[in-house]
Design brief:
Number of helices: 7
Radius of gyration: 18 Å
Order of helices and strands: HEHEEHEHEHHH
Number of strands: 5
Helix content: 40-55%
Distance between the termini: 39 Å
Oligomer: single chain
Strand order of the largest sheet: 3-5-4
């Protein structure tokens, strides 16, 4: 869908009291740090009925993305990790599963992927869990400060001065 159509649909749903959900995926081929942050910025609206979540790009067995030619064409780098849902189960008899996640591509090198991950998940905490939802929306409405710029500044400040901000660090 084109972004204009998405916005029209959101307005229609909201007028009928229907909450909207958007899924974002970090690590897709041809995505850049800038395009991911731009998409993230678009889903962070001031409307309390807009919800969104970030997923890590997974390589699924027997998918086009799992083919060696595809992995090579987009220079996809992966890591095998425990499936996070199984980590929440405290049953020692449960089956331990792994997933293959994308951590770099030709257009999203590893440092950019890490930045997208950090900014994205901090945005999710501060925006979706409403920890800084109103502050972030005020900064954007009154001063034109993008949510992702605020989060980036926050992350950089905490990382540059960990001794002065040990709790945040």
């Amino acid at each position: 869908m084109k972004q204009g159509d998405v916005n029209k649909m959101r307005k229609l749903f909201h007028s009928k009291g229907i909450v909207t959900y958007t899924d974002l995926i970090v690590g897709l081929p041809e995505e850049t740090l800038e395009s991911f942050l731009g998409g993230l910025e678009m889903v962070m609206t001031p409307d309390l009925n807009d919800h969104w979540v970030i997923h890590l790009c997974n390589i699924l067995e027997n998918s086009e993305m799992s083919e060696p030619e595809y992995l090579s064409r987009y220079r996809i780098e992966t890591r095998t990790c425990a499936v996070t849902m199984t980590l929440r189960i405290h049953d020692t008899d449960s089956v331990k599963e792994n997933e293959i996640i994308v951590i770099a591509t030709s257009t999203l090198p590893r440092p950019d992927w890490e930045r997208a991950y950090d900014v994205g998940y901090l945005c999710a905490a501060l925006h979706n869990f409403r920890l800084a939802f109103f502050v972030m929306n005020l900064l954007k409405a009154r001063f034109g400060i993008d949510h992702t710029a605020f989060i980036s500044f926050f992350l950089d400040t905490v990382r540059e001065q960990p001794v002065r901000r040990p709790v945040l660090h």
